[in-house]
Amino acid sequence: QTCSYENLSQRFLTEKRTFSQQYSQIYSVRLMEMKPMLEKTVKRKWGAKAKILPLMSVRVGQECVIVGTVFKKMVLKPSILKEISDEQSLLPPPFREKFADDTDSLVLEDSTQRIALTGAIGPQTAVTGAILAARG
């Protein structure tokens, strides 16, 4: 017995892949919305004299508070290159059971710059996109 087959999947195929849609706008809006709340919390927790500064104004040795978005730099994080290699029938990267690594690090970004986070906060305790106030 045979049956007829008609491929109707063409309407689901994308004509052109674009990777311009990033999370930066979401992070930027989240920071704008949460910054005033965090500034009030900073004053309540660390006192009215706590200096909240943008990264571009921070000087070496100066104690201050920075409000920003956390980014986790992950060496083993999956890459868009895997998707592209799948499309192009290239050899994909090896399968990984975990994406965390001892060499992961954290970066704090405000609306002007980025700075590496070190000290009491470690990469195992934070996720990309979290908004926080850091004092140091």
List the helices and strands and how they pair.
Blueprint: H1 24-46, E1 65-73, H2 80-87, E2 105-109, E3 114-117, E4 131-135
Antiparallel strand pairs: 1-2, 1-4, 2-3
Summarize this structure briefly.
The model has no long low-confidence stretch (mean pLDDT 84). The protein has 136 residues and is of the alpha+beta class.
Annotation keywords:
single chain, 136 residues, alpha+beta, 2 helices, 4 strands
Return Rg in Å: 22 Å
Quaternary structure type: single chain
Number of strands: 4
Strand order of the largest sheet: 3-2-1-4
Percent helix, as a range, is 10-25%
Which band does the percent of strand residues land in? 15-25%
How would you describe what is shown here?
- This protein has helices spanning 24-46, 80-87; strands at 65-73, 105-109, 114-117, 131-135.
- By secondary structure, the chain is an alpha+beta fold.
- The mean pLDDT is 84.
- A hairpin with a 4-residue loop joins strand 2 (105-109) and strand 3 (114-117).
